[in-house]
Write a structure and sequence with these properties.
- Two copies of one chain form a homodimer.
- A nine-stranded mixed sheet of chain A has the order 9-8-5-1-2-3-4-23-24. Chain A has an eight-stranded mixed sheet with strand order 13-12-11-10-14-17-21-22, sandwiched between helices. A three-stranded mixed sheet of chain A has the order 16-15-20.
- The first copy, chain A, starts with 7 loop residues before the first helix and ends with a strand.
- By secondary structure, the first copy, chain A, is of the alpha/beta class.
- Chain A folds into two domains: 142 residues, Glutaconate Coenzyme A-transferase (3-Layer(aba) Sandwich); 236 residues, Glutaconate Coenzyme A-transferase, CATH 3.40.1080.
- Chain A contains 15 helices and 24 strands.
- The longest helix of chain A is centred in the middle third of the chain and has 16 residues.
- The interface between A and B is medium-sized, with 35 and 35 residues.
Chain lengths: 468, 468
Amino acid sequence: MSKVVKSLKEAIRNAGLKDGMTVSFHHHLRNGDYVLNMVMDEIADLGIKDLTVNASSIFDVHAPILNHIENNVVTQILCNYMASGVGRAISTGIMEKPVQFRTHGGRPSDIALGRTPIDVAFIAVPAADNMGNASGKFGPSACGSLGYAVADAMFAKKVIVITDNLMPYPLPDWAISETYVDYVVTVDAIGDPKGIVSGTTKITRDPVGLVMASYAAQVIKHSGLLKDGFSFQTGAGGASLAAASFLKEIMLKEKIRGSFGLGGITGYMVEMLEAGCFEKLMDVQCFDLKAVESIRSNPNHIEINALQYASPAFKSAVVDSLDVVILGATEIDTDFNVNVHTDSNGYIMGGSGGHSDAAAGSKLCMIIAPMFRARLPIVRDRVHCVSTPGQDIDVLVTQGGIAVNPKNAELTERLKAAGLPILDIRALKEKTEAITGTPDPLRKGDRAVAQIVSRYGEPLDTIYNVVD
Amino acid sequence: MSKVVKSLKEAIRNAGLKDGMTVSFHHHLRNGDYVLNMVMDEIADLGIKDLTVNASSIFDVHAPILNHIENNVVTQILCNYMASGVGRAISTGIMEKPVQFRTHGGRPSDIALGRTPIDVAFIAVPAADNMGNASGKFGPSACGSLGYAVADAMFAKKVIVITDNLMPYPLPDWAISETYVDYVVTVDAIGDPKGIVSGTTKITRDPVGLVMASYAAQVIKHSGLLKDGFSFQTGAGGASLAAASFLKEIMLKEKIRGSFGLGGITGYMVEMLEAGCFEKLMDVQCFDLKAVESIRSNPNHIEINALQYASPAFKSAVVDSLDVVILGATEIDTDFNVNVHTDSNGYIMGGSGGHSDAAAGSKLCMIIAPMFRARLPIVRDRVHCVSTPGQDIDVLVTQGGIAVNPKNAELTERLKAAGLPILDIRALKEKTEAITGTPDPLRKGDRAVAQIVSRYGEPLDTIYNVVD
């Protein structure tokens, strides 16, 4: 018995894919992914139309999807993140049905609850056996964790695993179990390793970034949360990594032993694990080669899936036990609502990913962002769109000062007592506009190009087309 | 945030348990289990009645359930195995509703498909953290794999984890994820380690057992299946282990490298792994301390759950890739139907466990059993009850000769060519009866005491009360 079929086309036919259905993809191969394009080309070739693509994220390597939109092969997109190349095209209003943006926790929730059923999941995997057990840890296209693909495997009606590395049965340490897989297809390459993970992720050397990072580490130090058992999530951006670097120094100096680091994991978090800052890393996605090597070999570096990471549909998720998260923003408004979906001109260039989930789950959610980018201020009266509601944001750190959400009276006092430059978010806005001038008011079009769905499956906001 | 509640009673109340509901238990603590009795006593104390108990197996340590049956706290039992003490009482007809026997693969199928919904799962675990991540590998009551508890956790409406070993969050290497757990309760002890696993499992020294074991190894050797990539399952009985021992010698001598050993795992299978006979062990249940130590420390000794092991409800299970399984029987009939539920007098003293599942999945299913026990012949015209249908049984090995199911013409020729003592199953029956005499015909009562449900969820046979 074997589930290996001869070609992708045969697997698509066997799975019974038809007009109007939903197909799904994950984004662990990031900007190196060959599989989404490969599959959509085969589907187009088979003459199948009017598909919904539910992809955990869309990168610019997926730009050929724009042709499939033009040819009505793809008529709707659901994703948690959309890079700026594809995003800019969507923002001009090329699709009749708005894109639906979810969060990394909300997507698997909505899949599990049957709100966004998947007919056929196409799951690119760096290693699989002939029965469909699959892992991201082995092979030339190794990406580490396969956390975002697991809900697709568990709940899709048909599941096709696509690999360039068929290993002997039984494959150990699977992220996806054979119990969920219908067909296995082998291809020459599922991706370009150079685009899948970066060689290294680097700490910022930019002076503004270093000031923000230093403030961020001080906020954590004085928050009352930095003690044995501390847990932490941060992104792969240069300033976030610098904040982690300062935090590491404090933890080692004060001999604080944290419990876990969470999220998309970089080599920098691996170094913190190895230095004893954390007992465990809980890894839903690996950002660089060092993280991939660590998840393969270090039993304290643990793969989790998106349900476990952040899904509110189940009894709990790891984000519910998280102390501190550092997140970014393209805009934040005076009610602390954060935009990570569009740039300041309104063009789609991102998405929540795990932003809203970590913000909702953590005890302290900190945004670090410069006061302005390209002379456009970060703090606005109202964000273009709400990616994460202000009620879940605790602190904004900029190089020009730190604004604490007024709901956190005790934290404000702690940080003031520590001598940190605390100011009202409206004062921070005025201080910024004294440098940049007042930005022009937004000019939104009247056509909805995307709906933002909260992690709980509720409508959160709408993104309109951009009027130049 | 924490899911730890103060007492079992509080957890039962919070879970909303009411008259007429279904509660579930697993059997990894075997005859050392304290938890089923502890929970049922609390439930009785709360005055809750008319419950269905869905337990993966009932051991004789669970005899207090008979009192709860008498008091109408328990009005139905679903299980995959029932030891002879409780079984004998059930066989006298003390319950109005017949016991439903399933298989280790069929039980999680029927749970997953909603055929046997569980209201509250009570899951005894040797280690848990405050959010419910749970493992069988650590702690004073370590039992190794928690494979049979996973479907209960995934599909029960409410899940209560009960442990005597609360560990720091996040517990690594969980069998059950926090995503499924509602409440965590700590107790002094979940079981008696002496009853949970045996110190060692021993190979038979009985001459009859050794003859059967030798024949069994020869059947495998000449079956055409014993080559690189070979996979194997056997039980913990003395003769089965002796067969594994002979098989090991052959594999080492002929330098055959198998792919995996499967099933309930003994120290003997661990030795085969360590000697290089297999690349991996796939372990749904640990039978002895050596297996527990190995699953904790050897990454090639892999925990699987009952869905992965044997469930026909999903896309595939490991049994579907199994080459050879050695199984037992209390009776086998001339159509090769096997009884493992009752003794030859008709009293319940066992159950399918994984018998039917491994038989259905494997390429070669071999029964080893002596020609007679206590002067009662094994081969019958008709078994008391069909536990595993004859169509899934390939070979019967006894000390008096080997009977091959007539459907296997090629195998018969291979074994004859190898000089093995092959004879028709009817001839084997006559040969046995020449020694034992013809057994008295069965005297079944007219009251159904148990229904046997096939691994596919279909009625397979009925067990009637015993008339003395």
